[in-house]
Design a protein that fits this description.
A hairpin with a 2-residue loop joins β1 and β2. The mean pLDDT is about 85. A two-stranded antiparallel sheet has the order 1-2. The chain is mainly alpha-helical. The protein contains 8 helices and 2 strands. The relative contact order is 0.13. The chain has 2 domains: about 100 residues, Arc Repressor Mutant, subunit A (Orthogonal Bundle); about 40 residues, no CATH class.
Amino acid sequence: MRQYFRLVEERCGLPASQMWALQEVCRTEGIGINDIALRMGIHQSTASLLVEKLVSAGMVSKFRLDDDQRKVRLRLESAGQKALFSLPGPAEGILPAALSALPEVVLRILNINLDALICELPSGEKSFAGTPLAEMVGRSKP
């Protein structure tokens, strides 16, 4: 996966995380930052930082709707479209794309097996399912 993300950055000139956010703006004109965060599975503040970098680079622009001035919406700019044309594959990476292609029954079995794996990790708790492995290093299993 690292090779793929390096390839994305080489071809597009932006990190894969920014390209993924850019792709979400392309998929849904007028998307908000909170929706990008949900689709990417990241915190809203992280999504906001990604979007600010894209705005600074001229890839997307912000606008507000007349009927609701509170929410910032995003629009893809031509520079962003050009970057998206350079993508070698899905911006979110090859793993999510592969998972979305699996049948439901296979995903259920995978979920069961991943639950068993999580129980064997240093934390041994399902509450750590969303914790990056690097943050678990050094913790011992009770």
